[in-house]
Amino acid sequence: MKFKTFIWFVGPSLFLMLLFIAAPLVSVFLDSFRITQPVVQTVETETCSAGFLQQTCTTTINTVPVIDEETGRVVTTTEWVGWLSYERVLEPRRAWDAIRSFDYNGLMQIDFWAALRFTVMFTLVTLPLVIGVGLAIALAVNNAAKSLRGPIIFVSLLPFIITPVIGSLSIYWLFVGDGILTRGLEAWLDRDIAMFAQAWTIELLMLFYRVWHVAPFAFVIFYAGLQTVNQDTLESAIIDGASRWDRLRYVIIPHLMPLIVFIALIHLMDSYRVFDEIVGFRAQAYVISLQWLTFDFLAADDAGNRAFSRASASAMLTMIGIVILLIPLLRRTWRDHKGGSH
Fold first, then answer.
1. Among 72, 94, 219, 274, which residue is least crowded by beta carbons within 10 Å?
2. Residue 115, C-beta contacts closer than 8 angstroms, at least 6 positions apart
3. Rounded to an integer, what distance in angstroms lies between the CA atom of residue 41 and that of residue 66?
């Protein structure tokens, strides 16, 4: 292919990637090292009571932002602060003191480390469950009668079709207060149950929801991969007396390994940015994630200010965490690619 033709094909995609991915990423990176604040001024305001002979006046001093007379906007100033925003997010001294004294509760009092704990746990626990449940459904559908495959596939895909927030709200309504499943559990166990009164039950429900929502995606990928398994190899294994478990372990899983790596890559990137579950389950009072922490920094305080610098630092730390988790899978993909190229 000629270079000019190649540019015409690749150029639009490359331009959009630079515009919507690279440029915002660079902007967030720079914002994590600088703080933009409004310029304020002190204004004295005199307030007098009604009356003439007995009139009393009080003077109050207020701090108000400076407004540009031409544009009508608040005047701001930007200051480069280096690693200050990262220090405010990580609180390294306080965290190190808690780690050195084995004070787990003290460490969890720091928002970033509490969010990191839940995010990593959520990601690493749901990953094998999503792959295992998706593979189990794919194997069950592949071995089912052809007349049943269509309805089973349709029902299995329903959780994945539902939008994340709606899906999390559905699970929330089933268990919150006098939800249907809560009432059923209370009748069965003969005791009151409050599923959203403690952190561990909320985390358990969020784990269940994520597996329920994402496993159909893994199922579709695995089911497509099962259609390409070499039937001669399977028949040879059956003739040699291999059990179902042996055929799965030595024939099917090695064949599906590239798809397993692909699903793991997608799931790690998606689950590490967990946010919908926090909102849908209204869990921010008990459980927070790194993505929710970034959102919380961007929320305006009582004075209308937003911590853009700390939000940028939190976003960059989240991205670094995703890269660290992806390194083993990317190394395996690169090694398999080099092996295949030879």
1. 72
2. 288, 289, 290, 292, 293
3. 6
Q: In terms of Cα–Cα distance, which of 252, 249, 256, 269 is closest to 329?
A: 269
**Full set of structural domains in the chain with CATH:** 104-339 (1.10.3720.10)
What is the share, in percent, of the chain residues with pLDDT greater than 90? 43
Closest CA to 137 of 244, 198, 224, 35: 224
Concatenating the DSSP letter of every residue in 296-330 gives HHHS--TTS---HHHHHHHHHHHHHHHHHHHHHHH
Tell whether the model's pLDDT for residue 223 goes beyond 70: yes
CA–CA separation, 164 vs 278, rounded Å?
Answer: 11
Cα–Cα distance between 223 and 312 in angstroms, integer?
40
Q: How far apart are CA 174 and CA 180, in angstroms?
A: 5
In the chain, % helix, strand, coil (3-state, to 5) comes to 70, 10, 25
pLDDT tens for 230-244 read 888 888 888 888 888
Q: Over the stretch 165-177, which tens digit does the pLDDT of each residue have?
A: 888 888 888 888 7
